[in-house]
Amino acid sequence: MRIQKWQEVKGLKHYLTKYEEDGRKYAEAWFQINAFGRSFCFFRKRIAI
Which of 7, 13, 18, 49 is 20 to 30 Å from 28 by CA-CA measure? Predict the structure, then answer.
């Protein structure tokens, strides 16, 4: 059971990226959970920089 819980936590990742779109620069961050062969994104936030 303990290994199974660790594997679930292992599927949680935080991403942060910067990019330019239509001449404006943005930073975007989100949490992603990979489970059951799918990806789920949570708490996605984008700000202009």
Answer: 7
Sheet bearing 24-35, strands edge to edge:
12-21, 24-35, 38-48
Across the chain, which has 49 residues, the per-10-residue mean pLDDT values are 49 89 94 87 92
What's the burial of 32, exposed, middle or buried (CB within 10 Å: 0-12/13-18/19+)?
A: middle
* Residue owning tokens 């910067």: 18
pTM of the model: 0.65
Could you tell me the maximum CA-CA distance found in the chain, to the nearest angstrom?
Answer: 50
Structure tokens at 40: 């789920």
